[in-house]
# Entry
Amino acid sequence: MGFRRNAQQEALMGGMRVADAVSQANVTTPAYVYDVGAMAQIAAEAMAAFGTQRGFIAYAVKANSAGTVIRAITGQGAGADVVSGGELELALACQVPRERIVMSGVAKSDDEIERAIGRGILALQVESVEELARVSARAQALGVPARVSLRVNPNVRFETHSHIATGHDAAKFGIAVNDIPAAFEVIDRHAATLKAVGISTHVGSMLSTPEPYLEAARVVCEIAKARQEKAGPLTFCDFGGGFGINYGSGTYAPIGDYIRAACGLLKEYALDVQLIAEPGRSLVGANGVLVAQVLSEKHASGRRWLMINAGMNDLIRPALYGAHHRVEPLTGGTGTVEWKVVGPVCESSDDFGQHLLGEQAPSHVVIRDAGAYGYVMASQYNARALPAEIFVRAGRIVSVSPAEDPAEWVKRRARA
# Structure
């Protein structure tokens, strides 16, 4: 279902009026409202796209780390892509099978490396030749071989924001193609502590078509093919994620298009391995809204300003990336009058952009497509409490995460 409007132009999530969700959950705004049923449905469709190909989607937990969301998605057979020890422990606490967890990250601590090895996950995604020695040392200390996957930097560029492009040669992520032989030399030299089980990559976020994805995937396939011919079979190839969603303009291919294309590529290279894809935003992004109250309006210099009680501390994407999220009235359709929507934070970048609303300011608005990289990136800047989260499925609330208690924050900071 996701975001919809009924005949009365009231905002709906998961078949439930957003206003009712906020009221029944007994929370104040700003508050996130998610349709976890829609997230599960997209995950099920993505899993079905594998067809007869062995493999699974590893949900990028960083996109939305709520336990209700993780369980809804992994309940469809998905695994998890984690990038920290905290995300690893969260995935395990949500009963994600350890054999369906991969862990990436360019600066893993010794503790995180040991956790990944000790928990017996599918693979540590190693992002530099130098990291292999650290992994080997931790594996030796534990007395357990480490299953590793080499994350390749394929030097593939495509049109996206520079902050979310990860597959080019100036990015901090991954091992340069020219350094892959050296990485395998380290693995082979430390055969008692390192076991190569996969090759992976990730070119960045907000892909609109499979072409850049497949360009990087071919690099992975070439490396995997050569490695298997020399040293025997690998367990998987991981082509990453980064599948974009429509934030109000443009067209974006569904997850299934990427997966089916990837399956075809493995057949082309005759690689008998599992396929892993790492969607995050494309599973959850469109299935969340941030509800905010309109606090005041301002008319000055020929502009109309709408001040709301959600700010860049609640949803940082517009300030961080210049991202555009549609802002609409909670009740009533969009209008023809342009309003500049801003938040309460003491920064000029606390700005959600220009939006067409009605002549009269609404009492509440919804900021659309906020299911990914919203709450997970929220902060307490300006002593503002973290917002509430409401999880809806098939017209009813299934879980609520209350807002942080401001009084508790004051006590903690006063003690600091």
